[in-house]
Each structure stands twice: as C-alpha cells, then as structure tokens.
Design brief:
This protein is mainly alpha-helical. The chain has three helices and no strands.
Length: 92
C-alpha cells in the first residue's frame, strides 16, 4: 500500500530506549538539584530550568562518592546513541 509506513523493530526499540533514557536523565537531574538545594540558602537555589555544569560541580562537591552523576552521564549517552540508531533505522 503506497504511503504506508511500517517501523522496523529496531526503530521501535531505539525510540523506546531514547524515551526511557531521556526520562531517566530528567529525573536524575531533578534529584541532584533537590539535594544541592538542601544545602543552599533560598536566594542561591538552583531553578529547575537553570541546570548544567554548575549543578554537576556543586553536586560532586557535596556528594563525592555518589553514582548519580555517572547515571546521568550514562543516560545522556544512551539517549544520543539511541537517537542515532533510530534515525539510521528510519532512513535506511
């Protein structure tokens, strides 16, 4: 049937993996921001919109032995790789 699009199983898996890894990255970064905010005065707290390297640096200083930063990095890498696989599986 012309115009019908069928997604391959690899593209479905890649899309699901991208969605889950993005969700995990958001949850982990919010947990990190909440933990950092517990130690900051109210005027210096990190807003949920303004995150980034500053959050990572502050979190590593406060919690040097935690694996949350590694989990955040891994989820971002998995997201990027799954998007690449998704695009390749849809184009080829």
């Amino acid at each position: 049937m012309p115009g019908t699009f069928f997604a391959s199983p690899s593209s479905i898996v890649a899309a699901a993996l991208a969605a889950w890894s993005a969700l995990l990255a958001v949850v982990v970064s919010r947990v990190m921001a909440a933990r950092v905010n517990q130690h900051l005065p109210e005027s210096d707290r990190i807003a949920s919109v303004r995150r980034g390297k500053n959050l990572r640096k502050q979190f590593k200083q406060l919690y040097p032995r935690t694996k949350l930063v590694l989990l955040l990095d891994a989820s971002i890498v998995v997201f990027i790789l799954s998007i690449i696989v998704l695009v390749e599986s849809l184009l080829f």
